[in-house]
Every structure is written in C-alpha cells, then in structure tokens.
Fold this sequence. Notes:
The chain is an all-alpha fold. It has a single domain (15-182), classed as Orthogonal Bundle (UraD-like), CATH 1.10.3330.10. Helices cover 61% and strands 0% of the residues.
Amino acid sequence: MPETTPDQPGDAPDPGLARLNALSKEDLRTELAQCLNVDRWVEAVASEAPYSDRETLLARADGHARGITSDEVATALARHPRIGEKAKGQDTESAWSRGEQSAFAADTDDASARVQRIFTFAQGEYEGRFGQIYLVCASGRSSRELLADLVARLDNDRDTELTVVGEELRKISGLRLVKLLEAA
Length: 184
C-alpha cells in the first residue's frame, strides 16, 4: 500500500484547526464566543475539542446551534449591531460584523439610498413589534434583499420570529467559525 504524504488531497494539515485545537479551554471559549455568544453553545463546542477535522467541528457546532432558546437569542442579540450601523471596536467580532454588513451600504445610488431609508423605518417597526433588533445573516445580501426579508418577517408571531432569529444566529455562527479557522 502506498504511503500518504501531507501534500495529498484530504491529508493536508489544517492550520486553523490545529491552532484552535492547541488553545487552552479558556482561550478556545473566548474565540468561540466571537462566533456565537451563547454560553451553552460555547461550552458544548469547546468540550468536544480537540477535533479530528474541520468538517467534524463545523457539523458539531452547527448541531449545537440548532434549537437556540429565546433566552439565548436575547443574550446573543446584545452583541450584534443593527443592520446599517457599523460595529464599534477593533476586535475580531466587530470587524466580522462590518464585513458581513458591507453589501448593505455598498450601493450609493439614489434608489439604494431610498431603500436604506425605508429599511430604517421598517427596522423601527420590527423593534416596536418584537422588542429586539432585527437580526439576519446579512453576508453578501443587498439592501433590497434585506428589506424584503425584514418586511416578510414583520408578519411573524413572536414565537415564529424567535425561531427565525435562532436560525439566523446559527447561520452567522457557521460563517464566523469558518472565518475563525481561516484566520490561522
């Protein structure tokens, strides 16, 4: 049987995974909290380290992110800026947030500016209806797409909306976990 080398596909070392696996549990928890600020999720993902491969980490993290509770939604929302507001701070999580929302303000033509003003109004309606900020996985989505999503979600009842927000948090955590792995 031929020997495998690290240069063969599938056998190449994953520096991002190696970096995460080498972290202390405390440092790993800190890194993971940037992806999803839910203590149960952070503890569950950290407790299963070290991970044998990236796919296992991503699958386990995704599994633990499913079923986020309404209390966990409230905690996680506290760290997210409103769509259209730039995240303050120089930390990694703030930089990720600015990048995830970059498409929202990318278009500066008059029509896009109108969409953004309408969005701001609808966002206020959402906050009045649900008592929380509107959260969506905004990565790569235009202001028009986000407005359509926001308007559609205004028809949700409270329980449905909490489920939707939990799903959006799950998507965001997956994207951010990949970014964490790529940061090595």
